[in-house]
């Protein structure tokens, strides 16, 4: 019995050894298989890089300076830009634009995917002046229940401006930053109403109240595409309404926010657009 | 007996049968054993081999990725990483007469037919030479470098004897662009003429050749310079042209061109007279372009303190020699007028007041007495005027001082002039020209030649020459170009030749804060309709700069601006109007 147990144990040891050996073997095989795979891949990379170099050189050769010059002489006739074609600053670029005269066509506003920067930037001083006048007419404080307090609005405004100055396109929308009085946003009551009616609208109404009202109107005027956008726009449309200098804010707003309730956002955006147009 | 015999016989037969059976069994077992041994041996061998392969095999010939991609010769790029020279496996055309077997003709068609077809594909090929090579029946290169489409055309001829081995060769994707800077590599793989020769050890060093070597050149500016120089050369039927664009602050050579050029891709044809570099190797008397240097030296030395002082502009006799102006500019001129009209006499008067010691010191400080400090192997030694005293090391004679002041009697390379003009406009620091890309934080230590105030004054004066003077055709709008023309007669047998000129325009831009110096030189330009029947620099070299600067300026970071300029309002009232050289 003892012999048998001893034998059994040694057989067990041998079996264990064999299993371990087999496992090591399998592992080693796999490692080497992978290694040769890596090697093959490297070979392929080398071949591809050489091919790339070859193609690159061919393109460079076909498009070398002399060849480009020949093409330009025969086909394109490009010349170096003259001094008059350079602009030193955005001010020069802005100076090229014609100011809107009476009866001038309405500027075409195009929806863009990333209009956040443009919309959040301050607007030209002329409009900004009107906006602040409107604010004066409706001196209601901004949404109070929002997290950012008035004190926090300043750096937020500065950050927005910094963001706005990030690219030229955005900078073109901004000429003069608004004064402090513009910090007071549109009427609180309307903001709240819009917020109640539409949660997304509330979010929008809450943030960035330091912006002029009309900066938003531009955004609201852009026809919304997505469902989410639809949800956001009515809120703004509602908010924008009081910015109209001629409209009395207290009365105008419920009607406009009523319009904002409409499911079709385009409808909601329209009154807002009107508001923005009528302002100047 | 019989029965016994019979039984014995039967018994013996049985025994024998039993033996046979036993033997057969033994043999069979033995064979089975052999087969088994063989089988075990084979399977053991296989197992050992598998284990060896699976466990220990390291492919000995395996090379790393970096090694495999290491070029045979390092790449040379411009400052923006555009490849100018690279090792490249291109096709060559090899004639293998044994391709169709030992006996019989090596070609399907006749050598004449093949040669005619090849000459049709390669227009520059020599028909007679091809016929001779094909008839000789010896394996040889018919052409070292063949474009893929040409290789296809040759393949379409259906000759097995024409082979296209791909060989790693030196290839210049930009063709003849910057050929004098790059040089070429011969068939033995040795670099010649330009940076290929200078960088030979680095380009072949396995530790370095993996990373491209960046030169200071800008391929776009180089292309524009060669293009405009070529145009100017054609318009004036000049023998040759040279041009260099130098970074005024760092001394980096942005472009360097010597025309006519050569094609480094055809190394078999490259070694000829055209490899001679006119910018760094040929010395010329560069004439009036030296006048601003003289004036700067005089302002620096305190000889000129008031620019409104007038000097006589009538022919100036010095010993047996008389210094003349090209035109009559009246009885007297002040210094700004003298520069604007390029007056030799007034410059000679200024140099006379300055004296030989100060002028010589300035010229030496500008490196005019030594080879130009550039990496290229071919650098010309200036013709430096002899002074008096032991071995000509003493002071210059009075007449020598005067002729040097307006760029005669001293012959330097255009590169010398470029470095001198850089020092003239950059605030007064002379730095050696270099073809390596320089990190702005590690500029070469320069030496101060002029005071910063002198340099500021010269910027005004050079700008005035372009606004009001002989350099008007170089005035690219908005680029604030300043510069000086120079039209020197070439010396020939029996004195200077009136019709063989070296027309130079030395310019810098933008003058309110000079970034680049441009030197353009034409060798023996002719009077043509395009140059208004004139052969002086104002009519042929200056317009080249006027066309070149708008092309290169924006690419090199100089934005044209019509509202900026160097302020010349304090000097403008001093200047009348007139025409100069």
From TrEMBL, chain A:
Biased composition (Low complexity): 257-280
Comp. bias regions, Basic and acidic residues: 189-210
Lineage: superkingdom: Bacteria
Disordered, as annotated region: 173-280
Name of this protein: Colicin transporter
Organism listed in the record: Novosphingobium fuchskuhlense
TrEMBL record, chain B:
Domain of life: Bacteria
Annotated Penicillin-binding protein dimerisation domain residues: 71-188
Keyword entries, A-Z: Carboxypeptidase, Hydrolase, Membrane, Protease, Transferase, Transmembrane, Transmembrane helix
UniProt GO BP: cell wall organization
Segments passing through the bilayer: 33-56
SUPFAM superfamilies: beta-lactamase/transpeptidase-like, Penicillin binding protein dimerisation domain
UniProt keyword Secreted present: no
Any single Gene Ontology cellular-component annotation: plasma membrane
Protein name: Peptidoglycan glycosyltransferase
Biological source species: Novosphingobium fuchskuhlense
């Amino acid at each position: 019995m003892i012999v048998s147990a001893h034998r059994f144990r040694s057989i067990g040891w041998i079996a264990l050894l064999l299993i371990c050996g087999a496992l090591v073997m399998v592992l080693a095989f796999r490692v080497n298989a992978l290694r040769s795979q890596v090697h093959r891949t490297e070979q392929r990379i080398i071949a591809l890089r050489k091919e790339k170099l070859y193609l690159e050189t061919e393109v460079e050769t076909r498009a070398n300076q002399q060849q480009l010059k020949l093409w330009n002489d025969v086909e394109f006739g490009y010349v170096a830009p003259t001094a008059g074609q350079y602009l030193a600053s955005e001010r020069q670029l802005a100076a090229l634009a014609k100011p809107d005269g009476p009866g001038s066509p309405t500027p075409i506003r195009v929806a863009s995917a990333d209009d956040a920067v443009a919309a959040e930037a301050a607007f030209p001083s002329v409009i900004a002046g009107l906006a602040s006048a409107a604010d004066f007419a409706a001196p209601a404080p901004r949404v109070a229940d929002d997290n950012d307090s008035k004190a926090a609005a300043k750096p937020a405004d500065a950050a927005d401006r910094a963001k706005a100055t990030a690219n030229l396109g955005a900078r073109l929308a901004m000429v003069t930053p608004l004064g402090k009085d513009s910090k007071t946003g549109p009427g609180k009551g309307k903001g709240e109403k819009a917020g109640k009616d539409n949660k997304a609208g509330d979010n929008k109404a809450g943030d960035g109240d330091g912006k002029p009202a009309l900066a938003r109107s531009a955004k609201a005027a852009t026809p919304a595409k997505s469902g989410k956008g639809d949800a956001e726009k009515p809120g703004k449309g509602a908010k924008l309404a009081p910015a109209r200098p001629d409209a009395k804010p207290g009365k105008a707003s419920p009607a406009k926010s009523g319009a904002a309730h409409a499911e079709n956002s385009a409808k909601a955006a329209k009154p807002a657009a009107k508001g923005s147009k009528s302002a100047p | 007996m019989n029965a016994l015999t019979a039984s014995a016989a039967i018994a013996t037969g049985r025994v024998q049968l039993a033996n046979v059976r036993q033997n057969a069994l033994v043999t069979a077992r033995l064979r089975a054993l052999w087969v088994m041994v063989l089988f075990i041996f084979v399977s053991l061998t296989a197992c050992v081999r598998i284990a060896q392969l699976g466990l220990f095999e390291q492919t000995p010939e395996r090379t790393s990725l970096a090694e495999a991609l290491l070029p045979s010769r390092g790449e040379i790029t411009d400052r923006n990483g555009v490849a100018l020279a690279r090792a490249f496996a291109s096709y060559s055309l090899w004639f293998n007469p044994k391709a169709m077997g030992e006996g019989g003709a090596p070609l399907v068609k006749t050598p004449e037919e093949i040669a005619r077809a090849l000459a049709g594909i390669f227009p520059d090929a020599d028909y007679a030479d091809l016929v001779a090579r094909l008839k000789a029946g010896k394996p040889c290169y018919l052409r070292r470098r063949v474009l893929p489409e040409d290789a296809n055309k040759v393949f379409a001829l259906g000759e097995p004897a024409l082979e296209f081995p791909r060989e790693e060769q030196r290839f210049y994707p930009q063709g003849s662009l910057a050929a004098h800077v790059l040089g070429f590599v011969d068939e033995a793989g040795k670099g010649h003429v330009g940076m290929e020769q200078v960088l030979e050890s680095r380009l072949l060093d396995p530790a370095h050749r993996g990373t491209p070597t960046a030169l200071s050149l800008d391929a776009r500016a180089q292309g524009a310079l060669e293009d405009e120089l070529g145009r100017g050369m054609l318009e004036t039927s000049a023998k040759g042209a040279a041009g260099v664009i130098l970074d005024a602050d760092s001394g980096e050579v942005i472009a360097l061109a010597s025309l006519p050029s050569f094609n480094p891709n055809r190394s078999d044809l490259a070694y000829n007279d055209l490899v001679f570099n006119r910018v760094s190797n040929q010395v010329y008397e560069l004439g009036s372009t030296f006048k601003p240097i003289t004036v700067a030296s005089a302002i620096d030395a305190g000889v000129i303190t008031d620019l409104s002082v007038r000097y006589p502009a009538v022919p100036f006799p010095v010993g047996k020699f008389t210094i003349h102006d090209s035109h009559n500019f009246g009885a007297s001129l002040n210094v700004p007028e003298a520069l604007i009209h390029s007056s030799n006499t007034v410059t000679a008067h200024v140099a006379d007041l300055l004296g030989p010691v100060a002028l010589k010191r300035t010229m030496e400080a500008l490196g005019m007495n030594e080879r130009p400090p550039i990496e290229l192997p071919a650098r010309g030694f200036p013709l430096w005027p002899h002074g008096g005293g032991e071995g000509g090391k003493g002071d210059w004679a009075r007449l020598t001082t005067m002729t040097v002041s307006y760029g005669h009697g001293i012959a330097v390379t255009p590169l010398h002039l470029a470095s001198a003009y850089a020092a003239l406009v950059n605030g007064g620091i002379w730095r050696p020209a270099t073809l390596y890309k320089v990190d702005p934080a590690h500029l070469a230590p320069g030496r101060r030649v002029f005071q910063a105030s002198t340099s500021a004054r010269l910027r005004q004066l050079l700008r005035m020459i372009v606004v009001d003077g002989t350099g008007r055709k170089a005035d690219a709008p908005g680029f604030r170009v300043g510069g000086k023309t120079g039209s020197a007669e070439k010396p020939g047998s029996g004195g200077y030749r009136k019709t063989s000129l070296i027309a130079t325009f030395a310019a810098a831009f933008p003058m309110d804060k000079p970034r680049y110096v441009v030197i353009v030189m034409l060798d023996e330009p002719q009077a043509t309709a395009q140059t208004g029947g004139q052969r002086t620099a104002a009519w042929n070299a200056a317009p080249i700069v006027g066309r070149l600067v708008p092309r290169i300026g924006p690419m090199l970071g100089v934005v044209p601006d019509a509202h900026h300029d160097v302020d010349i309002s304090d000097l403008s009232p001093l200047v009348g109007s007139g025409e100069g050289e």
